[in-house]
Every structure is written in structure tokens, then in C-alpha cells.
Amino acid sequence: MLSDVISSPGPDASPALIPLHAASSERDRQWWRSSVIYQVYPRSFRDLSGDGIGDLPGITAEMASLAELDIDALWLSPFFKSPQNDAGYDVADYCSVDPLFGTLDDFDALVTEASGHGIRIIVDLVPNHCSNEHALFQAALAAPENSPERDMFIFRDGAGENGDAPPNNWQSHFGGSAWTRTNNTDGTPGQWYLHLFDSTQPDFNWDNPAVRAEFERVLRFWLDRGVGGFRVDVAHALIKKSGLPDWGGRADGCSSDGFPGHEAPMFGQPEVHDIFRSWRKLLEEYDGERVLCAEATIDPLDRLSDWVRPDEMHQTFNFAYLNHDWHAGAVRHVVGSSLEAFDKVGAPTTWVLSNHDVVRHATRFGIEGHQERPGDGLGPEDPQPNYELGLSRARAATLLMLALPGGVYLYQGEELGLPDHTTMPHDYRQDPSYHRTGGARLGRDGCRVPLPWHASTDSFGFSSTGSAWLPQPADWASLARDVQREDPASTLNLYRSALAVRREYALGAGSLAWWPDVDGESVVAFLNGNVLVVLNMGNHPVDLPAGELLVASEAGVAPGGILAPNHAVWLRLS
């Protein structure tokens, strides 16, 4: 029994611990190694202009609310000038603010306000592709074949007798071919250009030194304005394999269906590491420990850790953890293998449960049985998740995550227990993946719905006029921040309490040792310093030992009592 092992931590019990990860030394306690970084999706955070789309002044206005969570940094999803075909990930000008979100002065005011609360700003850089409205791509379209302008992107002649077929079989992540054909200035069919995402998002040619120089200019522009670093979008895709060969697996490079994603010619090419080494050197010219975090869909973990070697990225997202099943064995495996892989290169592991591209974990953990579209949102025609179950599991999973050593990423609204909008009428959907696939994929709109701030106002206080770019579920009034702030048992106050204890006990810089003799199929239990963390993922209660209760995912848990299924607890052991 768990309590038998833990309640007598004397000389006979200590050797039974299974140590996995040592605490960081004082020398290695840079802020980013144990950071809590909160993702803001600007268009859905807070709207002060009244147009129904969130803006930078809205973020600035709520900085005190964010500071209540005791976070280290804000990661802002793209706010650059953009036609918004992919919610800002189609950038038309990397050194300006889209008028939807405000001005550069608004950005500077946000940085200043955040700094006053001890919060850094992380900018979402999108280097793999830009908008087809970017001046560089417009110049490429107007230029002849084999010109320097065209060499900024990936243009190729088509296959077949008349060049009518795409140059290879690669597919867009948003559906359909990853190639679009251009027209020459005289109206005749021209070359094709590569876009791993939407046709309005042409990929840059990172083999061209001019592209590298352009992005170094962009990095310096934002670093000079005081940003704390960059989250690098699709960092694994910048370099494509020479010759752009056909791919025998899924042509979009995904590693599902048994295909070896690590062999995909559009992802994870060795030459990409030289780019990030040069960026690391550039950031080190600035004071204040500016950081790089890779969004790199790379497996296995031993290969992903190459991205955070000492002269490359500071952090990379741990998608293996994000995608774990509700099963104790799966959690123990991914935690153990992550710490082992990242410890080998002296880097921190990051942990994340939700973001703007996946189903929120309060919904994901409430889905029982097979999901037809596990990477996509749910619609009104789908079986609906069990929200009470999902929220209970989400709170427990969050408590486990916040006790792990390393960095943590939080997605706006998860601290309110927000689910996806799973009954959103299809007429409102804006994700390009929905439209490019004719509705076969529902897309990510369900996790991007504007936040509820005040229960009794239109759009729940999101907008000064009551407008919202996506509809909010009617029952979100009970999840509004003003309601939850006053409820001691709310998800918001659970996050606030857990984050405060995480800071007090330095859990992000701590150690991890597994407790033995537990049901590995049902229970995850580990010690971080003198804090015991227990998550019950099984179907039966678990006995708890004596100790000081620090945080529990649900009320009514007591040391020496029992822990119900789908609950988690932190206990301080003497």
C-alpha cells in the first residue's frame, strides 16, 4: 500500500526510493529552467477597442490579474501585421503590430507594465513561412525565375509534360497539396511554390543566407524593444531535404499510422541546428537571459533533446507529455523518459497540457472511448465529453504537472477550467483547416473562444461592446474570472494556490524520485524534495499517509485519509 511505504520514511524506507532527477544547483537556477510561462492568444484574451477581437491594451489592462498567478513570462501568439488567414500565423510584416491588436506604442506599454510585475514578454516568431502579402513574397511573384527575389522562397517547376502537376507529393497540414501554382505576368501558368500550411503561407528558403540575415534583423528589432525571448513556431521545418524528395509516409510529415516521422524530408533536418546556434549567440549579446523555445514536433525524446543542447535552444515543447493518455503507466513513462533525455544534455524539461492548437485538457480528459479526430476539435454532431469528469481530471493532472521539475506552460483560460466549445455552430468556424478540408477537419476554433471575465455582462466582459469574434457557450457565466475569484474551491484559486506553493518550495528546480510499491497502472506518486505528490488515475481510492496538506485538487482530502479516483494531492513530509 502507498501509505505503508510513505508513512514510515525511516532508514528502511529511504533506500526504496527510485531517484530519477537531481535538484538544480544554485549555479544552474536561471529563471527559464523552472519558469511558469502563460500563453496569451491575443484575439481571445481581452478586447478594449470594442471590435470583438482581443488587443494589446486588453492584455496590459489585465496584467495584475495575470500577476496573481505568480508567472514568470507571457508568451504572446502572433500580433504582427497580417491578413489573418491563419489567425496571425501568416505574417505580412514581422516588425509591426496589426491594427487589430493596436500599435507599437501599445506593445511598448505592455512590456513596461509586465516588467513592473516582474513578468517577461515572449514573442511568437514564425520563421518557416510568411503571408503571401509579405513584401518579399510579392517581390518574388513579380520577379523572373531563378532571380534573387524568388530564391527567398521555394519555387519549383511542376512535374509532368507541361508542368501541370505539383513538384512532389507533399501535403499541407491544413489539407490538400503543399504546392500552389503561380501565373506569369503574361497570364500563362508559372512555377509552383511550397507551403506546408495554407496556400497563403509560402515557406521561406532557409538555404539562402539572405533569409537568415532577414530574421536576424527581426530578432534584434524585438530584443531592442525589451522582449524576454522567442517561441519559435514550427522550428523543425525550416530546412528541407535537398532535392525535396517524395515521402513514402504521410506526405505532411506526420508520424501517425506507423510511418517513421523522423525520416520525413520536410522536418528535423540536421542543418537546422546551425540556425539556432547562431540565434543563441545573438541573444547572448543582450542582458537579462533572453530565451528561445522551440515548437519542434520531433520524436523520439532522445532526438528532441538535441534541440536544447547548451549552445542551442533554452527550451522545447514536450509534445509527448501533452499527448499522454489518462493512464498512470503512460504518465510515469513520459515523465521518466523526458527527464532522462533532457538531463543528458543539461537542459530543463517543459510540461504542457493545453495550447491554442489542441483540445483543452478539461475537454480531452472527459472524452471516453475512441476519438475519431483526436487532434481536432469536437463538433455538435460528436458524442459530447463528460465535463465534470474532464474538469476533475484536468485539475488533478495540472496539480501533478505543476509539481514536476522543469518549466511549465499554461494556456489562457485553463486556470478557469475552460472546456472547448464543442457545440459551436459550423457557420462560425474560421480555422483554415476546416475550410480547406470541406469540414472533414473541424479545426481548432473550439479551444480559441474568447475568455469570460465578468459573469453578468455581454460577452462575459471580454469586449467593451459585448462583441466576440467567436461565440462563447452560454453556460460560461459560472466560469467567469470574477465568480471564480470569490470561490475558494474554484479552479482559479486552485491554480493560484498551487503556483504559490510551487514557488515557495522551488519545485521547478527540485528533484524527483518515484515511490515504489504502488499500482503503476493506477497511481503516480513521487517525491520532489520533501513534497509528496500523488495522482490517482485508477478506479479505486488510495490510502494517504500522514503529513501536512499543501494543495489538493478537490476539497475534503485529508492526510491519513483516502484519495478518490481522478484526484491529486501534495503533502509535505517531515
UniProtKB/TrEMBL annotation:
Note whether Zinc occurs among the keywords: no
SMART domains associated with the record: Aamy
Keyword annotations for this protein, in alphabetical order, are: Hydrolase
Against CDD domains, the record matches this protein to: AmyAc_OligoGlu_TS
Q: Which residues form the Glycosyl hydrolase family 13 catalytic domain?
A: 39-448
Q: Give the molecular function GO annotations.
A: hydrolase activity
Q: What is this protein called?
A: Glycoside hydrolase family 13 protein
User: Which InterPro entries does UniProt cross-reference here?
Assistant: GH (IPR017853), GH13_cat_dom (IPR006047), O16G_dom_2 (IPR045857)
Q: Which organism is it from?
A: Arthrobacter gengyunqii
Similarity remark = Belongs to the glycosyl hydrolase 13 family.
